[in-house]
Amino acid sequence: MYSNRDFNRWRRHPWHGLHTHSEGMPKDIVQVYIEMTPDDVVKYELDKASGFLMVDRPQRTTSSPPALYGFIPRTYCAEEVAKRCPDVDVADGDPLDICVFSERHITRADIVLNARVVGGIQMIDGGEADDKIVAVLDGDNIWGDVHDIADLPSIKTERLQHYFSTYKMIPGKEIDVKVDFVYGREEALKVIAAAELDYQNHFGHLHTQAKARE
Fold first, then answer.
1. Would you list the DSSP string of the chain?
2. What's residue 210's pLDDT?
């Protein structure tokens, strides 16, 4: 039987092995696992089974994310997240996505950082809720004092909306994406709480079993 000490000999799974919040941090500071940087024109995504970063697809267009792009550990977009998005019944069944602005150019993915939540974009992709939380790097020298998305230059949000409305474009194939609704810090925190509850409802048993084996 493996103990917690045995498990920690190896790398933790970015989705299940990390925590949503670092110990002692305010509620608006979340841990983030970064999958993509603004330099990437290949769509990288976490392989949920192994916990390694994998190539999802090369982007057909020249589009690249205008911010660091990843997800919040121990979140899941299911029934509770869908309830916060009018006109949908389901969410996309992935960890909650997050975009992080940093003044310094971070050039590598597969890293973990702390970010302050400032808002979000309510994205509906093919009839599924697929929210994108917007945040700034905690302690950033330029954006570190931003606490709400209204305090960011509007072009920052506009570029995110454009990216997510176009990054799945393929010639001859119609896409059904809506990114019209932008919300502030308080709603973003409620979406994160809903995603944490969805995670607990769907995956909480994994951690209960792990503790029982210790």
1. ---HHHHTTSPPPTTTTS-SS-TT--TTEEEEEEEE-TT--EEEEE-TTT--EEEEEE-SSS---SSEEEE-TT---SHHHHHTSTT-SEE-SSPPEEEEE-SS-----SEEEEEEEEEEEEEEETTEE--EEEEEETT-TTTTT--SGGGS-HHHHHHHHHHHHHTT-BTTB---EEEEEEEEHHHHHHHHHHHHHHHHHHHHHHHHHHHHH-
2. 56
pLDDT of residue 60: 82
Contact status, residue 73 vs residue 58, Cβ threshold 8 Å? no
* Distance between CA atoms of residues 192 and 21, nearest Å: 11
Please give the pLDDT value at position 7: 46
Q: Residue 11's pLDDT is what? A: 81
How many CB atoms sit inside 10 A of residue 118's CB? Answer: 25
pLDDT in tens, 1-29: 444 444 456 788 999 999 999 888 899 99
Place of tokens 């899941």: 76
Domains of the chain, with CATH numbers?
4-213 (3.90.80.10)
Q: φ and ψ at 211, to 5 degrees?
A: -65, -35
Exposure of 119 in the CB half-sphere (CA atoms within 13 A): 19
Residue recorded with tokens 């192994």 = 50
Report, as ranges of residue numbers, the positions in the chain whose pLDDT lies below 70: 1-9, 208-214
pLDDT at 214: 56
Beta bridge partners of 157: none
